[in-house]
Design a protein that fits this description.
- One of its GO terms (cellular component) is plasma membrane.
- The chain crosses the membrane at residues 20-36, 48-73.
- With 420 residues, the protein is mainly α.
- The protein has 19 helices and no strands.
């Protein structure tokens, strides 16, 4: 409201032209009145009285309507007449009234629900989304928004937030009981046995390939005073026993060592759930692990990797992410367009969201109107409003002149008829 655009200037020129037209009509009836009065005094006949009466009433109507129109924007002839210059003097009150009008008639719950229900957003949105080109457009827009959001976010900030969230969540949640329950279920279901089979098989294969290394290690650990051949025989014996032990564990599901391992895991699962010392040790170990710099670096690098993956998927039109989003949009659109329950659900959600916004923020919305109007310059606002509606208001002056003339003619005619 502080600058006149080219369109505003054109409207102001239109207002000036209409003002000249209305003023010209007033001047015309004034001249007609003068001529009619002159003719009447010259004995022109009864018709002069009729013309003079019509012209006189036309002048009165024109002047009255000129006063009314002018009083909206300024003081007529600069005179301090009460209740004039309404717009500049009552600008703030008009802003408040406009805000209240909008709040009561456009931002009420009933109006919002009625209008949204009449629109049928669920059906229309579903039909629109069901079109492949529209789904492609929405997918592209979502990808652009996602890339923009990830670009704006600073990696250091996100990494700090993610790291803090993970650490805080881990500190707040004791993990030992959960680990115990999980381990107990694994042992009960025999899920650990495949891992044991794999470890034992790998251990046996390693011993077969590195037999010399095992024997050398045993011989190297023998005392220096023992004979070399004794050390060698002991190394061979230890190696054969290890190889036999691994082979038996690998081939015998009922091997005593496997049973001992089952009992150990079962007892450990129970201790994780009920033993105070075991749970405390697990918590201390958890804190030490989370506090290590390597773990924090791993958390930070995980966000970087996820971010790069998401950005790459968003940029690639044929990526699995965009294809899945597109397919989901098409499916959602088809359901919204054909299934009344889905349409009703979407309509209720939209209505609820809109009602929540207008009822919660109605005062803020209407205050935007009130505060904006209050911030306008009174004189400039008056000129701008006059530029927009002044041309139509000049028709009031023209109509007042015409209607006044007709009314004056009618009254004069009735008066002469009654007088006759």
């Amino acid at each position: 409201m502080t600058v006149f655009s080219a369109a505003d200037e054109e409207k102001r020129r239109g207002v000036r032209r209409m003002k000249l037209t209305a003023a010209g009509l007033l001047l015309f009836v004034a001249v007609v009145y003068g001529l009619a009065e002159w003719a009447s005094h010259q004995g022109a006949g009864p018709w002069a009285g009729y013309v003079a009466a019509a012209a006189e009433a036309g002048m009165v109507g024109a002047l009255a309507d000129w006063f009314a129109v002018t009083a909206l924007f300024r003081r007529p002839l600069g005179l301090p007449i009460p209740h004039t210059a309404i717009i500049p003097n009552k600008k703030d009150q008009l802003g408040v009234s406009l805000g209240e009008f909008v709040g009561e008639n456009f931002l009420s719950e009933d109006v919002v629900r009625q209008r949204l229900r009449a629109v049928g957003i669920g059906t229309r949105l579903g039909s629109w989304l069901a079109e492949p080109e529209h789904a492609d457009r929405v997918t592209a827009e979502l990808a652009t928004a996602l890339r923009g959001a990830l670009t704006v976010l600073r990696d250091s900030d996100v990494q700090a937030v993610v790291g803090e969230a993970i650490t805080r969540r881990a500190d707040a949640q004791e993990i030992a009981p959960g680990m115990g329950k999980m381990l107990e279920k694994i042992v009960a279901d025999g899920g650990h046995r495949r891992a044991v089979d794999l470890v034992v098989a790998r251990a046996y294969d390693w011993l077969v390939l590195h037999g010399d290394s095992v024997m050398d290690a045993v011989e190297g650990g023998a005392p220096g005073w023992t004979p070399r051949f004794v050390d060698k025989r002991i190394g061979e014996r230890v190696y054969k026993e290890l190889l036999r032990f691994c082979a038996e564990m690998r081939d015998m599901p009922s091997h005593p060592a496997r049973g001992a391992l089952d009992r150990f895991l079962g007892d450990f699962a129970s201790d994780l759930q009920s033993d105070t010392d075991t749970r405390a040790r697990v918590e201390r170990l958890k804190g030490e692990v989370l506090g290590r710099g390597e773990v924090q670096d791993l958390i930070a690098s995980a966000w970087t990797a996820v971010r790069s993956m998401i950005v790459a998927a968003a940029e690639d039109e044929r990526s699995e992410l965009r294809l899945r989003v597109r397919a989901s949009l098409l499916t959602l659109g088809a359901r919204m367009a054909t299934e009344p329950k889905v349409q009703e659900k979407v309509d209720r959600w939209v209505e609820g969201a809109a009602v929540h916004v207008v009822t919660t923020y109605r005062k803020e919305i209407t205050s935007l109107i009130t505060d904006t109007v209050a911030g306008w310059d009174a004189e400039h606002t008056t000129r701008k409003i006059e530029a927009h509606i002044g041309r139509d208001l000049q028709f009031i002056r023209i109509n007042g002149t015409v209607v006044g003339s007709l009314a004056g003619l009618l009254i004069y005619t009735v008066a002469r008829a009654l007088g006759a």
